[in-house]
Amino acid sequence: MIVAMKRILFVLSGLALLTGCTERIDLELNDEDAQRLVVEGWVTDELKPQEVKLTLTTSYFYTEAAPRVSGATVTISDGTNTWNLTEDNEAGIYLSDPFAGEAMETYTLNINYNGENYSASSTLRPTAPIDSLAVVVFDPAEEFGIPIDPYYSVRLWSQELPGVGDSYLWKLWVNDEPVRDTLTELTITTDELFDGWYVADVEVHNLQINEEAFPGDTVTLEQWNIGYEGYQVFFGIANETAFNGGLFDAPPANVETNLSNGALGYFGAAGVSRKSAVIVE
Hints:
The chain is mainly β. It has 2 domains: about 30-125, Sandwich (Immunoglobulin-like), CATH 2.60.40; about 130-255 and about 270-280. Strand 10 and strand 11 form a beta hairpin. The protein has helices spanning about 1-20, 140-145, 225-240; strands at about 35-45, 50-55, 75, 80-85, 95-100, 105-115, 115-125, 130-140, 150-160, 165-175, 175-180, 185-190, 200-205, 220-225, 265-280. It contains 3 helices and 15 strands.
């Protein structure tokens, strides 16, 4: 008990010394004069208006949605054609006339905002069609003895395209409503370990039974080939945000981006395929 008390007194003394020599430091956490442009945009091989979303960074303590950017001049070009994007009724959303991106074509985004120019380029890699999709009940406790509740396993069949450099992102929809749509919930991988393989009966997502999905619901899976650069950017963002904060993590670093002039975010091009399946009883 005496030893324990000595330790406590020592700790308290140390705390007293620390609190006795503290100094208030005011940090500028992204005030208005330090705001940066944030870009979210894609060109896909689907015939539709291609979309670019523009916002501004905001204070660390700002609890509202990031401010939208209006009045920017936004174009997308493939070197031959140029599409002028117009701002939608929703502020900060810029849409092109409908067009479909072409495989292995490079698309360049140009933005002019407040007298500053920003740009990024990305090459559209095609994605293989999804041959089949199944949504089945999977019970880890029954299969592996792991005490986890049963869930719906979303399983994929698809021929991976030969040639290393493809990277895949899978998005999930239930009855046309997006689920698993935040960065930490998306499934992303490269083809380094399965280049050219036939991917058969592989789980790429899961859904909580009678919470996220019910019998009779329609589940749609989108398979995006975002390329290796897209994978690096997405993984880098996740590494510095959702996967960071542990005791032994490396010091924070600037997140990955392919945009110029200090802008944040990503502009990408991707081939997209999709498949739907109905959950049976």
